[in-house]
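Appendix B, Record 12. Input sequence as logged:
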Amino acid sequence: MRSMLNALTDVTEEHNGSIKFARNGETLTVHPPRHKNFSDVQDLMQIRHFLERSAVPEQAAIAEGTHLLVVIDHREARIYRTELHGTVPERIVPYDPDNSHRHLHNVDDDANGQRQHELKPFYDAIARSLSGAEKILIFGSATGASSAMDYLLAELKQHHHELAERVIGTVVVNEQHMTEDQLLAKAREFYNSTPTHVKNAET
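Logged structural output:
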């Protein structure tokens, strides 16, 4: 139960030993049981009602004016709504007809452009998923020729000008060593601290 609530909410441990869970404007304060398991039915019902109250309606998932995080590398792009706790990412993978799993930076070596038809739908699919965003933040694990993040930004600037103008930052992260909660916390910190113009950072 604790692991589930940690994954879905913001958690604060209070001085008296209580634990406060917050999600989408709703809060719940729980006194942890002395034993491992919850045995109080009333406590369990409070948790259930809290989860029901703090659930986001389905229509909110497609609402415009949202803040999005794109975490991208050569294998896939994950798109999160940063204002939602417990958000489930939309995953987009490149077209790979021969199952070769070649890295995106290999496109520079394909002078005949054979891989362009594979990459174009990948970026187009990402752009479609970003269309309702008010602001967009992009996390990637590299820069330069091997950077899927840089490819995405260049593609947006060339073919999706309005979306490119909504990108407020590109950040290099070691995402293989970061949990989803850590990625989202970093994104929220960036959104809260950044001005409206585009910023670049590295971590």
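Residues 42 and 48 are 10 Å apart (CA to CA).
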